[in-house]
Amino acid sequence: MLMLAGGGEACTDIDHLRGQDTLFGSVPSASTMYRTITSLSPKLVDDLWSAMADVRAKMWDRALLTSGDDVVRLDIDATLIDVHSENKQGAEPTYKRGYGLHPIFIFADATGETLGAMLRPGNAGANTVTDHLDLLDQAIGQLPTKIAAGHRVGNDSNLVARPVQVRADSAGCTEGFVHGCRARNIGFAVVARRNANIHAAISNIYVNDARWQPAQTQAGTIRKGAEVAEITNLDAWPTGTRLIVRREPKHPGAQRSLFPSDNYRYWGHYTDADATVDPVECDRIMRAHAHVEDHIQRLKDSGLERMPFSDFDHNAAWTALVAWADTLVRWFQRLTLQGELATANPKRLRWQLWHTPARLIYSARRHIMRLLDTWPATPDLLAAYTRINAIV
Questions:
Q1: pLDDT in the model for residue 254
Q2: How many helices (H) and strands (E) in the chain?
Q3: Angle between helices 129-142 and 175-183 (to 10 degrees)
Q4: Which pLDDT score is estimated for 168?
Q5: What are phi and psi of 244, to 5 degrees?
Q6: Distances in Å between the alpha carbon of 57 and those of 146, 198, 390?
Q7: pLDDT in tens, 215-243
Q8: Displacement of CA 283 from its chain's centroid (Å)
Q9: What is the rounded distance in angstroms from the CA atom of residue 343 to the CA atom of residue 348?
Q10: Which position has the higher pLDDT, 324 or 22?
Q11: Is the whole model's pTM more than 0.90, yes or no?
């Protein structure tokens, strides 16, 4: 995981850590690491996820994330990994006419941590209900006990101590998934697909209908030109489901719209958010699902795009290692860094922190790491060490 965080993409990259055993201890060879990863069976990977959950509970408690009663939001999304070899198991033609694998992930919105990962063949369906629900169950198993209470299949809703909501793009817009969320006492917000029912519903709202309200940005300011309205009485969806529709002035190159119009582009989502949450706030919360793109990009910058093994299970273990490495970095950022570095992407962290030039000396029976005074991130590194000492 340390090798992946530092930018490694293959087992042989571990050799870059072997020259400083004073810093890193006994670092395994590339061949030893290869044998270790290829020995990680699916059952052992599951056990390691459980171990991560134990540490996560302590970290969330220290970061005060387990207190309060705010909604815990989870985000599901999949991505495509290009593979340039036919010798890798699971590599198949993808829906974008490429060739590779199709992993799917679930993240905690508050921290960006990967709570679940599932490597899938390249031809895996985008809207497979079982994959989404299995991933959701994996994420609930990663949450601290207080938050996970009441969110497993068949649990009494009275057991819920903290509300949980899952967001997904149109791949999650299936009756099976949203009813599965309801069976777990989990709220949902999923991007709506274009169909005749939505077409008819939007047709019933006049352009100047009073239900259209100004949309807001994530900062709470007015989103220029964008408006939001709510549509109810939806058939085949769980009781209490609302359809929130947003329209914006059409611009060149605009994506496909829910409703044909020469003047506006329409976009919407289904949610079972409480009626006390107004449509504008529902729209603002759902648009924050876009954070998932940043989370996936971090994984791709940390080894996800390089599947180094031919065996599918071995690459699945590699995918889990990538997710855990990113999670360790997120914990480090949250507990020890401030300012822009607290949310910086992997490339910036490597340039400013991980790859900082320094000299290790031995003086007065102590090892001392001397940093360059002129290195831009030296103050940030020293501040991080101070916070680490305070935590310990």
A1: 65
A2: 13, 14
A3: 30
A4: 96
A5: -105, 125
A6: 10, 42, 19
A7: 999 888 898 889 999 987 566 788 889 99
A8: 19
A9: 10
A10: 324
A11: yes
Query: Which tokens belong to 71?
Result: 């909604």
Token code pair at residue 115: 């709570």
Give me 310's structure tokens. 């031919």
Which ranges of the chain would DSSP assign to H, the alpha helix? 2-5, 21-24, 30-38, 42-62, 129-142, 145-148, 175-183, 196-203, 279-287, 291-299, 312-336, 346-349, 378-391
Residue type, 212: W
pLDDT tens profile 104-139: 999 999 999 999 999 999 999 888 999 999 999 999
Structure-token match 């850590």, residue found: 17
Length of the chain (residues): 392
Q: How far apart are the C-alpha atoms of 354 and 347, rounded to whole Å?
A: 10
> Of 220 and 259, which is predicted with more confidence?
220
Residues 338, 342: Cα–Cα separation, whole Å: 5
CA 349, CA 75: separation in Å to the nearest integer? 24
- In eight-state DSSP terms, residue 353 is I
Q: Answer for the pair 315, 87: CB distance below 8 angstroms, yes or no.
A: no
Domains and CATH numbers, the chain: 2-341 (3.90.350), 342-391 (no CATH)
